[in-house]
Amino acid sequence: MQKNSVKVSMAVVRRLPKYYRYLGDLIQNGVMRISSKELGKLMGLTASQIRQDLNCFGGFGQQGYGYNVEELQKEIGRILGLNQTYNCVIVGAGNLGQAIANYEGFRREGFALSAMFDVNPRLIGNTIRDIKIYDIQDLGTYVLENDIQLGIICVPKEQSQGVADTMMENGIKAIWNFAPADVQVRDNVVIENVAISESLYTLTYLMNEPQLEI
Ligand SMILES: NC(=O)c1ccc[n+]([C@@H]2O[C@H](COP(=O)([O-])OP(=O)(O)OC[C@H]3O[C@@H](n4cnc5c(N)ncnc54)[C@H](O)[C@@H]3O)[C@@H](O)[C@H]2O)c1
């Protein structure tokens, strides 16, 4: 399937993981093909929204047939870059860093987490599953020597920019940042901030919104 030369909007990009997940569930349930209408109903989108989204990448469906679920999921996985592996490290081996390291799913999906880093001498030298925690001083050398592409930040917000700078100086091109801070990145580096608290506060807004009955 050929990619269009049109720049894809971030709104579409942000929906792609959801397509990927829903299609994965359909495959698990033995569904082999699906119409845009059916897929839209499942995902809470209109059929025309689905067609528009997928047309950004050349369109995948066939008139009167719908989408081949397996092919579409594979193709969306390729568009998302999930057909390759990524060498990753976590900086900050506290509660969150350890929880991420303990999640098997990322490794299965091609995120090869090989090391964690921390400043705390009580943590340095320990392992979380088979992943060793190193001294933060070794981060730069490790990133360079192990061709690390993706850095995961799980340190307090005050430390996050410094950690990101070391990552970028040593060639990391993608940062998954869990610290609640606006980390500045260089032009050729991409960052995704995960704002867990903001999501929670949105929930409390909805709980307290006067028009809503819960
Ligand atoms: N735990 C959660 O559910 C959660 C939710 C939302 C956001 N966050 C954010 O994620 C980050 C980590 O949270 P946590 O609960 O794991 O905290 P934590 O205190 O358990 O862990 C932070 C770890 O970072 C290490 N650290 C501090 N400075 C460092 C540095 N310069 N280099 C390397 N390591 C350093 C500490 O020694 C500690 O082990 C915080 O910014 C927090 O606000 C956490």
From TrEMBL:
One of its GO terms (biological process) is response to redox state. It comes from the Bacteria. Transmembrane segments: none annotated. Pfam families: CoA_binding, Put_DNA-bind_N. Residues 18-57 bind DNA. One of its GO terms (molecular function) is DNA-binding transcription factor activity. Homodimer. Belongs to the transcriptional regulatory Rex family. Modulates transcription in response to changes in cellular NADH/NAD(+) redox state. This is Redox-sensing transcriptional repressor Rex.
